[in-house]
Amino acid sequence: MNMKNQILIGIALMSTILFSCSSTEYVYISVTKPAPVTLPPYIKNVGVVNRTQLSNQNKVVDVVDRVFSLKGVDLDKEGAQSTVTSLADELSKNNRFDQVKALTNTDLRTNVPGLFSAPLPWDQVEEICHQNNTDALFALEVFNTDSKLSYAANPVNILSSPVGNIPGIEHQASMTTTVKTGWRIYDPSSKTILDEYSMANNISFSASGVNPAAAAAALAGRKDAVKEVGIQAAQAYASRILPYWLRVSRDYFVRGTNNFRIARRKAQTGNWNEAANLWQRETTNPSRKVAGRACYNMAIISEINGDLDKAIEWAQKSYENYNIRLGLQYVKILQYRENQNEVLKDQQPQQSQQPQQ
Description:
Blueprint: H1 3-20, E1 24-33, E2 45-50, E3 53-54, H2 59-68, H3 75-92, E4 99-102, E5 109-110, H4 122-132, E6 136-161, E7 164-187, E8 192-209, H5 212-217, H6 222-238, E9 244-253, H7 258-268, H8 272-282, H9 288-304, H10 308-320, H11 325-346
Parallel strand pairs: 2-4, 2-6, 3-5
Antiparallel strand pairs: 1-9, 6-7, 7-8
Helix pairs in contact: 3-6, 7-8, 8-9, 9-10, 10-11
């Protein structure tokens, strides 16, 4: 056996020993995380507006942008309209709102394509909301496409005959289009922009033809793809006001006494209540190390059962009384979760009230 194989076998044996001697294992649980954006409880009716049309004084900028970014006719305009409609549809599915309206009767303009303009004046926001009986505005402020085109000429056989192949050239056109969207949420009651967020998605196209012009012409179908990307961007943005589930891991102790070993097997089969009964018995074990581990595990089962206060109490006890260092780290995790739960309560309003002026 050569030296290299001996080293590899030694590493494998060492890894096995370390794993088998570990005093903890992971348990995975699902926790609810607050949405990135919190809306005040009084916002029940919202409007969605399109502010991506370029102002008249910047039409020259628009023409230059179309040339250098390879835009088709009305590519950005139609993509933006699809995006606004899609966002209104997505928000309508959220029982957070009583009514969602796509406001097509507004004529809002931007100054520079692809960038956020200065926020809308609050008197204008208030007027739009008053006219449409809405409490807030979701504004699509940016919708811009930027494309890069490349060509390649590849030799091919265009015909086979008894005397041999006839060579030819196939022209390949490839295009990558970046679709950038940007959003703001205006709250006229508090005169606050609740969110400003942008995202970018890339889509690629390729086509072939007998000459470069034919190959490029075959890329004409990208308008539908751009609309689809806009729809997906709207769906992603709508999720910014929705709490979401996240799978997280927790350490728990599996070694200490025979009860820990039995509890481990029960936990592995999902029998957490009986595992907790065994850990509970060990919380009074004369061994401080065993009792501390049992207290820590009681914090784990308390979090699994949704009782964060009890979980913090047990985790604190494991660290303060028995110096289980994982307990201190766990206390901080649980306290953060409690703070997050307060945010979650604000994101699930039960009353309609106006902010104090």
